[in-house]
Amino acid sequence: MAPFAVVITPIGYHKSELVRQAADGLYRELTASGVEVLLDDRDERPGVMFADAELVGIPHRVTLGERGLRDGMAEYLPRRESSARNVPLSEITKLLPDTLKTA
Questions:
Q1: In terms of CB atoms within 10 Å, which end of the chain has fewer, N or C?
Q2: How far apart are CA 11 and CA 23, in angstroms?
């Protein structure tokens, strides 16, 4: 049993105001909707953050990067799928609680 349902992995959290604002906002929204979420705001490479989330067993990962955010997109990867998909950032807060209810 994972300690969190979702991990937010912001790429460049300490370097990009856009990434930081999006990650903090998404964290607040998901927490307010009752989702157990971890914001990985460490100054680590993406691979390290991804590997740590995998080791802990967190079933859902949302990755935020400056390039995707400029287009209004987040990358969503459920643990049981092999590839991530781009989802509009505005839909993540609806997608995750709905997905978690059916899981």
A1: N
A2: 10
